[in-house]
Amino acid sequence: MAKLELVGLYKRFGAQEAVKNLTLVVEDGKMACLLGPSGCGKTTTLRMVAGLEKPDSGDIYIGGKRVNDLPPYERNISMVFQFYAIYPGMTVYDNLAFPLKQKKIPKDEIDRRVKEIAEILRINHILKEDAIRLPAGEKQRIALGRALIKEPEILLLDEPLTNLDARLRAVMRKEIKRLHLKLKTTTLYVTHDQIEAMTMADVIGVMNLGVLQQYGPPHELYNKPANMFVAGFLGTPPMNFLDFSYIVNGKKYFDFGEFKITDPELLNMLPSTLESNELVLGIRPKDVIISFNTEESDSYGWEIKVVEPVGDKYIVFMSLGDKSIRVVVPAIERGIEVGKKVGIRFRKETIHIFDRKTGNAIL
Questions:
Q1: How confident is the model at residue 167, as a pLDDT?
Q2: How are beta strands 203-208 and 31-35 bridged, if at all?
Q3: d(CA 254, CA 307)
Q4: How far apart are the C-alpha atoms of 22 and 211, rounded to whole Å?
Q5: With 0-12 CB in 10 A as exposed, 13-18 as middle and 19+ as buried, what is 129?
Q6: Could you give the C-alpha distances from 229 to 208, 221, 296, 356, 358, in angstroms and in order?
Q7: Tally of CA atoms within 13 A in the half-sphere of 69 that contains its CB
Q8: Across residues 93-105, what is the average pLDDT?
Q9: Residue 344, Cβ neighbours under 10 Å: how many?
Q10: What is the arithmetic mean of pLDDT over 229-236?
């Protein structure tokens, strides 16, 4: 195990800047997830750590040692790819043993480590099976086992669950987390799936267009997003964004065009030094309350357009003029009908305010 440090990494492919000035630290024994959409630079970063791509500038340190110029086999890392590689014509035992045989590890030590990792992965009962014939979930366990059996300082996981069905993904999320807690191998995990990142990682780095947008614990990114991209990328359904102006004309209020908010408690939440008048209110669907009483709402006249039943809740899509919003309500809520006019209230302690020009958080 070792600390992983990335300092000012840049990587270009022709005119395209794939990774721009990336700096982050994964502490010894922790799991960090790089999260973002396709093309954001997360896999390129992983490949630079692995030694499969060379950074144009910046440094990579593993256990305090600069590894930029070391080939992959000298970095003491292991990598699991999106498409699990199983050696055909080999048993599960031989697949697990293969990297140790390549290193000419003594036979009794190979046997001990194969049985140990098989026990940890719960595949000790299939060691004699033909690996290529096994189900996808077992194959991914074998790929993980082959990576871990080398006892790497850094484990790199590149979208390892993408090709599994939803049920298997849920099972393997739990298995990978269990393995990490047991083995404490420093891990860098790349995914576009926010559920994987939020449920497994100690820290998450959200990337977009090659730039690290925010890096920190999952609860921090969810509750205190640094900008609109992070706020909109984390959370299901995604956060609502409503453009507004902060009007001070003898009387302060939020002007949304179709409606105004004059609640003094909410107005006082804004910084006194606020200068920008081009603002965006962010509110998660679970923090919007539908009201059937005009006096209890921040605005009235929203029309229910679509109601999506999702298990024990409804996702309700509503509009007012050119504004639209999603709301999550319990499925037992009465009066939620398409075409009905309702009011809404915001849970004020959960509101986010962003600068419309920069996208950065103000509140």
A1: 86
A2: parallel
A3: 28
A4: 7
A5: middle
A6: 8, 11, 31, 12, 11
A7: 0
A8: 94
A9: 21
A10: 97
| CATH number of the domain within which 159 lies | 3.40.50.300
pLDDT in tens, 179-218: 899 899 999 999 999 999 999 999 999 999 999 999 999 9
Question: Which CATH number do you get for residue 278?
Answer: 2.40.50.140
Q: Could you report the per-residue pLDDT of 283-309, keeping only the tens digit for each?
A: 999 999 999 887 777 788 999 999 999
Total number of domains constituting the chain: 2
Q: Is the pTM of this model over 0.90?
A: yes
**Count of beta carbons in the 10 Å neighbourhood of residue 132:** 15
Dump the DSSP string for 258-276. S-EE--HHHHTTS-TT---
Half-sphere exposure of 337 (CA within 13 A, CB side): 6
Q: Which residues of 29-57 are buried (b: 16+ CB within 10 A; e: fewer)?
A: bbbbbbbbeeebbbbbbbbbbbbebebee
CB neighbour class for 284 (10 Å; exposed up to 12, middle 13-18, buried from 19)? buried
Q: Where are the beta strands (DSSP E) in 313-363?
A: 313-320, 323-330, 341-346, 352-355
Determine the number of helices (DSSP H) and then strands (DSSP E) in the chain. 9, 20
Task: Give the helix ranges, DSSP H, for the chain.
Answer: 42-50, 92-102, 107-121, 136-148, 166-183, 194-200, 218-223, 228-233, 264-267
Please check whether residues 156 and 216 belong to one and the same domain. yes
| 362 found inside a domain | no
Q: What is d(CA 260, CA 11) in angstroms, rounded to the nearest whole number?
A: 47
